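PROTEIN–LIGAND DATA SHEET

This sheet pairs a single protein chain with one bound small molecule, zinc ion, given as SMILES. Inputs appear in the order they were entered. The predicted three-dimensional arrangement of chain and ligand is reported afterwards as a token string under its own label.
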Amino acid sequence: MPAPVEIGPQDRLFVLTGAGVSAESGLPTFRDSNGLWNGYRVEEVATPEAWMEDAEKVWRFYSMRRRDALRCEPNPAHYALADLERDLGDRLFLCTQNVDPLHERAGSKRLLHMHGELFRSRCEAECGRPDFFDDGIYETAADIPRCQCGAQIRPHIVWFGEMPFDMDRIFAELDRCTMLAVIGSSGTVYPAAGFVQQAHRSGARTIYIGPERPLNATMFSEVVLGKAGEVLPGLFTVPKPD
Ligand SMILES: [Zn+2]
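PREDICTION REPORTED AS:
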């Protein structure tokens, strides 16, 4: 087991979780089988162009993912982060690239879904109606719901080529954290690579947790190799005041 990382009373921990954490619960990712997700290519289903071209196909894909997400359970990594939130309160900032609700189902309350949420939808025309909870399954063009304004309802997901949500808040939290943990997200690609650079510049201790050593391992103060569900429980310790 890796040496425990102690979180002191003044520390603020920023955690970024990526696809590896969901994969350990059995959810597939585009990284499996050469960028295919159950036979779908990224460009076919997860870009604004795909939506313009074939909204029905896009909704079939996200409907399938809604069904898959309901079949999966949180794993020990999700529970370890929920426990950490109970200990640290708002000194933990949990930011996830994952769109599934597994962090919430494990008990995390304050988290930011930078790439959106599988079980929320919104108006494609951005008419002013806010995004909303939606667990609908839409298999045909006729199933796709319409907004009051007449436009189609789309998944509340950040597609390739779109801006992630709440970047201002993310950068503010990166500036003030004293520790950054990147978990189950490739350390070398955006956004994790940018996050570690910024936290590093601010003097934060940076920890990478994943099954393989990242190419930019030297950017991290520590690299903890292993599955998140195996190494995360017990990795962070929060001493109780005497
Ligand atoms: Zn609308």
